Amino acid sequence: LPPPPPDARIPLPGGGALIKIPGEGDLLALTVDDGVNSEVVRAYTQFAKDTGVRLTYFVNGTYDSWTENKEMLRPLVDSGQIQLGNHTWSHPDLTALPKDQIARQLTRNDEFLKQTYGVGAKPYWRPPYAKRNAVVDAVAADLGYTVPTLWSGSLSDSTLITEDYIVQMAEQYFTPQAIVIGHLNHLPVTHVYPQLVDFIRERNLRTVTLNDVFLKTP
């Protein structure tokens, strides 16, 4: 199903983290993180090309997968089907870093995204391990990263788990207005794309990027 028309976009809710899509509706934001495994990045991107599913990738630029798959991924970024968000350069616990290093993690990754894909990620960032505090949020906001993006459901695949378990998680969490987190790290998810699509279609959900849902901030 197509994403909502641009005139249906809503303002970003202010204050605090984004955990699910506000309001009632039929939207599903599937957001996938890291990029440890180049083959998984390639497979997810092919999945998007084959099905039209809309995705948001939260990128750690330190991983070679983002450079290796640039030619395949960039056209989908250009078209808006895949949005890129900032997940820091190298996935540290930001709450354990001094302010200058917190800032560097975000700015280095931002520069990488602009150089490699021609897009910035602001205002969306995802703190590694969901670890954030007032200091981290303030540093991020000063850089234009005002929307820490968390999730309401998870495929639980940051570590290696079975295909069956991923399908169970999708069945549980692919619900209206959910933001679901997955990972570009391990191969099992690449074997269950048909089941993921079945849930989306059976439930009449529309996959969206964050930019599909929210008005651009100035």
UniProtKB/TrEMBL annotation:
Keywords linked to the UniProt accession = Hydrolase, Metal-binding
Q: Which residues form the NodB homology domain?
A: 26-218
Q: Name one GO molecular function term.
A: metal ion binding
User: PROSITE patterns from the entry?
Assistant: NODB (PS51677)
Q: Name one GO cellular component term.
A: membrane
* GO biological process terms, semicolon-separated: carbohydrate metabolic process
Q: Which Pfam families match?
A: Polysacc_deac_1
- Say if the entry is tagged with keyword Nucleotidyltransferase: no
SUPFAM superfamilies to which the protein is assigned, alphabetical = Glycoside hydrolase/deacetylase
Protein name stated in the entry: Polysaccharide deacetylase
